[in-house]
Design brief:
With 354 residues, the protein is mostly helical. Helix content is 62%, strand content 5%.
Length: 354
């Protein structure tokens, strides 16, 4: 069997399957009344995952080393990781919006690798001396899987911002994924979800607040209404904001929950990958940390998502603010993974990758 021809066929097939799958997910989101589209989308993503896995296995057999030595191989490994994490996240959430967010990214990665990279970069080549180590599989594979999980979690956070229209929606208990929720508006465009089992406390208009009773000169009692002391809510709000539908709020809760869990999966993998890379660096270069551009941006990525998890676990952040932080992390991951290698030079630059 010609393994090179098999790889060339599998990369194009994977791209085509992911392209069709992306359209199916988008169609399912636009026309939710059409049955079976979510199931077909899931099948397409699983097929692409298996196709990419077969491609990487054929490359491994042909080259004789774990296929993570150049940009072509790493892009397909990243696409495989994104499709795998997608299937996990979709199974947990049962939401078709997971595919709406992840489908275009997975498709774009495979398109760039299969259709844009020159043929010499798609071909397997002997490893450079620095990569001839068992740490290649340990360090690089864990780092790529962490990138995949963090990207999926960040994409779901971006989807959360789109669904909520950027409004400040506060979710109570969404990180645990328990209970149903309903919302209440205070007239200023802010909404709060509460458990259905907990009654909503009535909101008293500011104009109805009363000052303590004051005795008049005749011994009677007067009540001073603070109409002129406190402005009406309509005067405070600059522009009324349309309330979110219960469906949007339910979707937002699911996206926030799954985003948090997916990033919680990727962060330990990133930590392990950085530690493994430090050990490998000491073995190869005699130093655990050299402040190489790749190392520096890996640390920045770790700090961004550490801040995200700290804000959610310790500070209790949920909803819009952590979603913005996760969306920022999406850009940081891409800079760490690809931007540093394309724009800068360092110990990790071998060709276009590593």
């Amino acid at each position: 069997m010609d393994l090179v021809a098999l790889q060339n066929g599998l990369d194009n097939i994977s791209f085509a399957v992911l392209f069709v799958t992306m359209l199916i997910y988008w169609g399912g989101a636009a026309f939710p009344e059409i049955p079976y589209l979510p199931a077909i989308g899931t099948a397409g993503m699983a097929s692409a995952n298996l196709g990419i896995a077969a491609l990487l296995l054929a490359r491994w057999i042909e080259a004789g080393y774990f296929p993570l030595s150049n940009l072509y191989e790493s892009l397909f490994f990243l696409a495989w990781g994104i499709t795998a994490v997608h299937l996990i996240a979709e199974n947990m959430s049962r939401s078709r919006l997971v595919g709406v967010a992840t489908g275009p990214v997975a498709m774009g990665i495979t398109a760039f690798a299969a259709l844009t990279l020159p043929s010499e970069m798609q071909s397997a080549a002997p490893l450079v001396p620095a990569l001839k180590s068992n740490w290649l599989m340990m360090h690089v594979s864990v780092m790529m899987l962490s990138y995949a999980a963090l990207m999926v979690g960040s994409l779901l956070a971006i989807a959360f911002l789109v669904v909520t229209r950027g409004q400040n929606v506060e979710l109570q208990g969404s990180s645990t994924g328990t209970g149903g929720y309903r919302h209440e508006s205070n007239g200023s465009g802010h909404y709060q979800l509460q458990r259905n089992s907990e009654p909503l406390e009535p909101v008293q208009p500011l104009s109805h607040l009363q000052a303590p009773s004051l005795a008049d000169n005749n011994g009677g009692v007067k009540t001073a209404v603070l109409d002129r002391v406190v402005a009406e809510p309509a005067e405070i709000a600059t522009e009324p904001v349309a309330p979110l539908s219960p469906l949007r709020l339910s979707i937002a809760e699911t996206l926030d929950n799954i985003s948090y869990r997916t990033i919680g999966l990727g962060f330990p993998l990133l930590t392990i990958g950085i530690i493994a890379g430090a050990v490998w660096a000491n073995e190869a270069w005699g130093s655990y940390w050299s402040w190489d551009p790749k190392e520096t941006w890996a640390l920045i990525t770790w700090l961004v998502f550490a801040a995200y998890l700290h804000a959610r676990i310790t500070k209790g952040w949920q909803g819009r603010k952590p979603a913005i932080l996760a969306a920022t992390g999406f850009a940081v991951v891409w800079i760490c993974y690809l931007g540093v290698n394309l724009l800068g030079k360092g110990l990790h630059s071998y060709g276009w990758f590593f």
